[in-house]
């Protein structure tokens, strides 16, 4: 058979094969949004005599539902939206507001094709906490004491991952006087802690402005612009109450006092504006205060070393 005839025969076979192939249909299955989402809250020590728990503030959450691929949770939607991704549907949270408090827990469940469902649950949790008397005495002195960021030592400011296994500014640490040229307001600001008849009070005084990021990252500080680089911005100072609370992190007690300062409202801050309101006290003495706090960019842990005036 000639090459021409062979090629002609093969071409004919290919045409027959192509014609005999059925067209394949590709379809996407039903995109079913998550349903029957359930939040089970097991409050530590809760029983008939102590319905709000044993005072530790610990709550175990167990999540369940149909067609769920992943969960996000906000442990208290009443104080602003702050969803956190969960690697598994079981997690423990320590609530630190002293006394009996009501929290709105919100869960966002994701299903196939980015479908989602949301559900909320209110819980009441009791937290009992008395700080070590020496921590209180060091912080407020005989009744009132003023602190500033200690620009004269290396590591007075730094950042690392917001992770319980990380307790140092792994990513960046400030050198002596590092922010003088760009943001000297960081060093001229002062923070006065006082004992009052009804508890404790913080006064943030910033004669040269507040050192912070802007917009939604400014921690709610009044008067900070909606956009701009990190820097010093006009801020009229503020006064608020604060509480000593058990630290909500899992940082090991060998590197932390396990005590935190919880600021009320958004009018005050300590050192850096672009952080949340719970400052964990890693260490404190008569003249030195070392703090760790979650940034408004929630993957960041900020570290600050202050010195007493």
Description:
The chain is mainly beta and 309 residues long. The chain has two domains: 35-127, Sandwich (Immunoglobulin-like); 133-308, no CATH class. It contains four helices and 19 strands. The radius of gyration is 28 Å and the shape is globular. 30% of the residues are buried.
Concise overview:
By secondary structure, this protein is mainly β. The chain contains 4 helices and 19 strands. The chain folds into 2 domains: 35-127, Immunoglobulin-like; 133-308, no CATH class.
Model regions low in confidence, pLDDT < 50 over at least 5 residues:
1-20
Give the integer mean of the pLDDT values.
90
State the major sheet.
8 strands, antiparallel, barrel
SSE succession: HEEEEEEEHEEEHHEEEEEEEEE
Distance between the termini: 104 Å
- Rg on CA atoms, Å: 28 Å
Helix content: 10-25%
Walk across the major sheet and give the strand order: 8-11-12-15-16-17-18-19
């Amino acid at each position: 058979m000639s090459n021409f005839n062979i090629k002609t025969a093969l071409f004919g076979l290919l045409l027959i094969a192509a014609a005999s192939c059925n067209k394949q249909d590709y379809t996407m299955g039903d995109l079913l949004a998550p349903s029957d989402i359930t939040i089970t809250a097991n409050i530590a020590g809760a029983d008939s005599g102590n319905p709000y728990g044993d005072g530790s503030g610990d709550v175990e959450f167990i999540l369940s539902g149909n067609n769920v691929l992943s969960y996000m949770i906000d442990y208290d939607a009443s104080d602003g939206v702050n969803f956190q991704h969960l690697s598994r549907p079981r997690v423990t949270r320590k609530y630190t507001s002293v006394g009996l408090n009501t929290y709105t827990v919100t869960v966002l469940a994701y299903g196939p094709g980015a479908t989602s469902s949301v559900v909320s649950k209110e819980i009441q949790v009791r937290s009992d906490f008395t700080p070590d008397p020496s921590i209180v005495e060091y912080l407020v002195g005989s009744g009132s004491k003023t602190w500033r960021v200690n620009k004269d030592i290396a590591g007075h400011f730094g950042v690392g991952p917001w992770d319980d296994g990380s307790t140092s500014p792994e990513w960046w640490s400030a050198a002596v006087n590092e922010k003088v040229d760009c943001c000297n307001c960081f060093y001229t600001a002062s923070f006065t802690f006082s004992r009052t008849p009804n508890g404790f009070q913080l006064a943030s005084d910033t004669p040269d402005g507040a050192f912070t990021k802007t917009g939604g990252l400014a921690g709610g500080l009044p008067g900070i612009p909606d956009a701009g680089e990190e820097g010093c911005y006009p801020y009229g100072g503020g006064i608020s109450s604060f509480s000593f609370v058990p630290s909500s992190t899992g940082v090991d007690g060998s590197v932390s006092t396990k005590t935190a300062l919880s600021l009320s409202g958004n009018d005050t801050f300590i050192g850096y504006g672009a952080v949340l309101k719970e400052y964990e006290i890693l260490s404190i003495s008569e003249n030195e205060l070392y703090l760790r706090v979650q940034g408004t960019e929630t993957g960041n842990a900020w570290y600050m070393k202050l010195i007493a005036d």
